[in-house]
């Protein structure tokens, strides 16, 4: 009976250990699921935008050919309702912004290299529009780090990378200037606050004896 009780007690301890492991692993599992979901949503948005972008480019090419041939321009295709009324480039930027900062790297690592190529092409277009500099520059750096060999050997990506370089450098310079101006303004406000505090101190010290005399 004692042996049976000991075995039974041992089984209970094992169950408790398993429960503790389940509880401790729960946050990690939740973060992993959130990251996977973020990556899947980003790639889904990318596919939708890429298809619509291809349609728009095909229409632009058809318009150019019609104009060259002296023919009327073809009718514009109906926009995809899945884009929520946004241009494909704006839709990809929206999808990037919806990914939490701490999940962005893992969400991008879910992408294959062919998908990374499309993301970089969209990033080039976003930067050309002057929008989303911070999120796009971070995405570009993460993709360059993840696919260094493939990207550097890809001739297809050269135009996109050249556009990214051309627009990213001045935009980051403007951001640095803005941060510098804001920092200078904050320091100026802080100095003024300290000066006011220093001026008040002697006044308060001078007023203190008077207050004591009135209460005496």
From TrEMBL:
It comes from the Eukaryota. GO terms for cellular component: Pwp2p-containing subcomplex of 90S preribosome; small-subunit processome. Residues 12-23 have a biased composition (Acidic residues). Residues 25-35 have a biased composition (Polar residues). The keyword Metal-binding does not apply. Residues 1-35, 191-216 are annotated as: Disordered. InterPro entries: SSU_processome_Utp12, TBC1_cilium_biogenesis. One of its GO terms (biological process) is maturation of SSU-rRNA. Residues 191-203 have a biased composition (Basic and acidic residues). Residues 90-191 form the Small-subunit processome Utp12 domain. GO terms for molecular function: snoRNA binding. Keywords: Repeat, WD repeat. This is Small-subunit processome Utp12 domain-containing protein. It comes from Phaeomonas parva.
């Amino acid at each position: 009976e004692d042996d049976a009780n000991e075995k039974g007690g041992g089984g209970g301890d094992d169950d408790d250990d398993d429960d503790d492991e389940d509880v401790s692993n729960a946050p990690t599992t939740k973060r992993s699921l959130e990251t996977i979901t973020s990556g899947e949503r980003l790639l889904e948005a990318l596919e939708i935008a890429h298809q619509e972008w291809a349609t728009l480019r095909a229409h632009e090419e058809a318009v150019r050919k019609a104009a060259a041939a002296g023919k009327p321009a073809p009718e514009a295709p109906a926009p995809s309702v899945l884009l929520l009324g946004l241009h494909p480039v704006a839709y990809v930027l929206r999808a990037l912004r919806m990914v939490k900062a701490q999940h962005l790297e893992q969400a991008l690592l879910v992408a294959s290299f062919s998908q990374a190529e499309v993301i970089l092409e969209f990033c080039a277009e976003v930067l050309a529009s002057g929008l989303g500099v911070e999120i796009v520059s971070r995405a570009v750096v993460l993709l360059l780090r993840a696919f260094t060999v493939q990207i550097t050997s890809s001739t297809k990506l050269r135009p996109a990378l050249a556009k990214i370089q051309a627009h990213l450098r001045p935009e980051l310079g403007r951001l640095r200037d803005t941060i510098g101006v804001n920092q200078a303004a904050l320091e100026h406000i802080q100095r003024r606050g300290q000066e006011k505090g220093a001026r008040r101190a002697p006044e308060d010290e001078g007023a203190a004896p008077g207050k004591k005399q009135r209460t005496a």
